[in-house]
Amino acid sequence: MAKLKKIEFVDFGPYKMVGKEIRTKIEKFNPIFPSKYPTIPSLWKQCFSDGTFDTLANMTEYCPTETPNGYEGYVRDFNKEDETFTYVAGFLMKVNTPVPDGYAAYYIPACTIAKTWIEGEEHNIYPNAHQLTMEAIHQNGYEVDWQNYFSCEVYTDQRFGVPQKRGQKVLILDFYIPIKQE
What we know:
By secondary structure, this protein is of the alpha+beta class. The protein has helices at 40-49, 52-57, 122-139, 157-165, and strands spanning 3-12, 15-25, 71-79, 84-93, 104-108, 111-121, 142-144, 151-155, 170-181. Strands 1, 2, 3, 4, 5, 6, 7, 8 and 9 form a nine-stranded antiparallel beta sheet that branches. Strand 3 (71-79) and strand 4 (84-93) form a beta hairpin. The longest helix has 18 residues, at 122-139.
């Protein structure tokens, strides 16, 4: 099972999230009635195969030192009525980053974030990272900054990429949510 390994509250941004986006929703797999929405795994697969990440990685002058080797999955614009949201697979980049043709970009203002490390097997991390982070935010006397809400999965080489390439099953995903004092 996934567990919270670490939480800290840090100043963050401003940044620009640059990548490829989809409008999707979290759905359970149902082979009889497959989802009409594109899936997050299919977006990641596309971005690795079509050069999306190569293009961003080659824009080194726009990559902030805080996230030099991480891929990010960025969630925003949750719609309560149909439970859809925008998901961007890409890189957090400097605010002045030019946006390549065919890419989406979103400005993230300076804020304070809850930065958690969620540890577990990959298939357990994703469905639990948000809830574990939300619980830790409240337990530490903060609340989510809903006015500026986003969540961000950060795949660092040190805690995620390299251990995964070595065949380790237990990985650590960094997970960010903007917060404010209760």
